[in-house]
Amino acid sequence: MEQEFFFPPCPSPQLFVARVLLDNKRDFLLDYFIPEELEQVITLGSYVRVPFKHGFGRGIVVEILEKQQSDRLKIITRLENQQPVVPPNLLKLCRWIADYYCCTLISALQAALPQSVRSDIKPKQDLLLTLATDFNPMVFRNEHKRAKKEIEALAYLQKNHPARLSELPQKTGIPRNIWNKLLRKGLAIGLLTEKKNPLPQPIFPNQTQPQHLTDEQSQALQFIETEMLKPKPKPILLFGVTGSGKTELYIHAMERCLTQKKQVLLLVPEIALTPQLWERIKSRFDSSYTLGCWHSRISRAEKAHLWNQILSDKIDILIGTRSAIFAPFRSLGLIIVDEEHESSFKQEENPRYHGRDVAVMRGRLEGALVILGSATPSLESYYNSLNAKYNLVELKKRVEARRLPQVTVIDQRRRKKNSSEKETKNAFLNTEELISSELKEAIEKRLEKKEQIILYINHRGYSSSLQCSSCGYVLPCPNCSISLSYHKIPAILNCHLCNYSSSVPIQCPICKDRNFKFLGSGTEKVEEYLSQLFPSARILRMDSDTMRKKGALEQALRAFSQRNFDILVGTQMVAKGLDFPYVSLVGIVSIDTLLHLPDFRASEKSFQQLLQVSGRSGRGSIEGEVYVQTRTPYHPAIQFARHHDYLGFVDQELEFRKTLSYPPFYRAIMIRFIGHPEEKVKYVADALTKEIKEKVENSLTLVGTPSPAPLSKVKGNYHYQLFLRCLKVMEVSQKLREIILDREEKWGIIVRVDIDPQDLLK
């Protein structure tokens, strides 16, 4: 147990002073004396226990002041961790986040520092079993001939000791109670150790071998190596078409970084991408290098253990989602942001940072090379490469001279509607409506050839809404300004914003009619329809409903990779970075909803999604094809994606953005006002907008007018928003902080400042 120090409030000698940021909701800085016993161990980033009000609090040391003597200062009572939980480099990064993203320093530090570390959660423990020193196997066999399981267990332990108790039942088939008997009888000895996290089971066995680099890849690697040797390397935008071998290039760059005795951080936008990357990278590095995996599905104890391992320089490569950018590396040499264009790198809760941009800043602060990889770079990143802020490295060809898939656009406006009465009863089973004849025929051909198919639709559930056939009433969510989605298994209506659910009504609450229409389609409906259309096909559905259980995602990926399924139906999970060599057909059931969202990024996101989903086809030796079903076939995003023409799309989109003063030419800021009643929210929004116009608006900053958000009500609260565009974010952010941060409680309204928003609907 750690020693705890208690001192009188007035020390006689002069002592060093620590400025402590309390672990609170607001930035609350207090000075405390450092006791002499802790002078050598308390540094910047130390997590300490301090007297606060009538009890104790915890906080982070953010500054060490000169020795002084004072009657007013209290003394730090305990050091919570033996080493600083926030290294100085990470503390500096969090200060930048607070300044840029208009948030408090403590909120930035709380985002960086896992709750498990701040709560001092201990790693789970395990027992290492070994044979007792005085154990004689011959004597035991003679005296305990009937104890066959115990003899079997001891024989295993004799050849395989020490062994972890938690793993023995699965490895040997011998029940846990037998191993416990050996401990009780003194035949085995157990030593306490930290529980080892189980390694992922192989999912993609054919993708672990090193690949010969193409000329393009070799030239790209040479450029990366040269930049890596510079003391202040410029970020690299790695723009490579789908299947061009970006991951192979990442691995070679990692190898060069590790030879320099530095550490590597690989960021991915989705948990779904971690198993494949983990397996591929793990197979390429020997046991002298240690890998770690960081995402929201690992336990709090596992995070605490991994954090301490990184602090102790025991992790060489970390693969993780957005929050892994805060990993406390001390010698970071390479940061890779895979699929850098993905909006999931943006945090929706406070602090609303963008993982990609924080990665670029961390690389700048620590002299690490940052590689941003994508087949469809964000307009901001590509624009930065045009302005020489980033180096541009291109991979224009797929590996092994594989061809990009042919894209066929199907005009759904010309489909023939079935006029029979069956449409009322089974509107969602209409072949022409859900799956076109062209796509159906393509699926049949691929199934006959024993190839695999991916169908993409960006909506989970069965249908997006339930409508009365008589009066047209659509059942809404009582808490939000959207309709309830219908889920068939189980049969419920569910809100995808607040998670409100209810049973399906027997009759319309307005006109009492008992007939309903199911509008829109989701993954559940597509799966059901395909099973009726192709009864012998093995169909796998992959969305947040089916992948909730721990291990479900890995199990699904493994099953599809091993060709246990013919068709994969999914949402965005199937659109990003996955590599299945036997997938030869991708069908996009619908893209129209995303195309027409009231968001200036809608066209860019649609184009990226089309190209990314298309890229899942034809990645092996089989040539691929893509079918896109749409009612807006001549939309520029669809036409450019059809021809895999990223540069053509970017040229047109940049011209549009420049004309309207949108990013990347201006920086966007969204201020959201949230609360109830609506009149109060509107009043505060109007009053605050007036003050912002007076203090912020100038020739470099454009301030709009507050209006109800597209989703005007969420979880019972009304949402108003104010859109700003500016050239100098830091200046505007500082002024907004002065206006907003300390007055929220007075108003009783939540005010959220979102710098560089990625989604204008939320």
From TrEMBL:
Helicase C-terminal domain location: 503-655
Protein EC: 5.6.2.4
Catalysed reactions listed for this entry: Couples ATP hydrolysis with the unwinding of duplex DNA by translocating in the 3'-5' direction; ATP + H2O = ADP + phosphate + H(+)
GO biological process terms on file: DNA recombination; DNA replication initiation; DNA replication, synthesis of primer; double-strand break repair
SMART domains named among the record's database cross-references: DEXDc, HELICc
InterPro entries reported for this sequence: DEAD/DEAH_box_helicase_dom (IPR011545), Helicase_ATP-bd (IPR014001), Helicase_C-like (IPR001650), P-loop_NTPase (IPR027417), PriA (IPR005259), PriA_3primeBD (IPR041222), PriA_3primeBD_sf (IPR042115), PriA_C (IPR041236)
Cofactor note: Binds 2 zinc ions per subunit.
Matching Pfam families: DEAD (PF00270), Helicase_C (PF00271), PriA_3primeBD (PF17764), PriA_C (PF18074), Zn_ribbon_PriA (PF18319)
PROSITE patterns, alphabetized: HELICASE_ATP_BIND_1, HELICASE_CTER
Broadest EC class assigned to this enzyme: isomerase
Keywords per UniProt: ATP-binding, DNA replication, DNA-binding, Helicase, Hydrolase, Isomerase, Metal-binding, Nucleotide-binding, Primosome, Zinc
SUPFAM superfamilies xrefs: P-loop containing nucleoside triphosphate hydrolases (SSF52540)
Keyword hit for Manganese: no
GO molecular function, one term: DNA binding
Binding locations of Zn(2+) 1: C468, C471, C508, C511
Residues that, per the record, bind Zn(2+) 2: C477, C480, C495, C498
Family of this protein: Belongs to the helicase family. PriA subfamily.
Complex formation: Component of the replication restart primosome.
HAMAP family: PriA
Protein name stated in the entry: Replication restart protein PriA
Organism: Methylacidiphilum caldifontis
